[in-house]
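Exercise: predict the fold of this chain.
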Amino acid sequence: MPAPVRAGAAVAGAVNRLPAASLAEVVDRAALQTCIDRKYLVSIDRFAELIARLTPGRRCRSTVNAGSRTSRCTSIPPTC
């Protein structure tokens, strides 16, 4: 199986065990926060291991945007 397909299935399987949070809900909760996010590159196996450690429903949820829990990300260079 090609790596992108395997990775997509692994990510989807991992995040689907968490309760959903709509994008509107995430934006609403984050409205008063300043966000500087960091992205980390990890192996598929390590990602699945990290997600498995989360406790669904407590503080861990998966963002749903347009019916999907996964998406591709494009970084925008900082302007400051």
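Check your answer against the key: Helices lie at 3-15, 23-30, 44-52.
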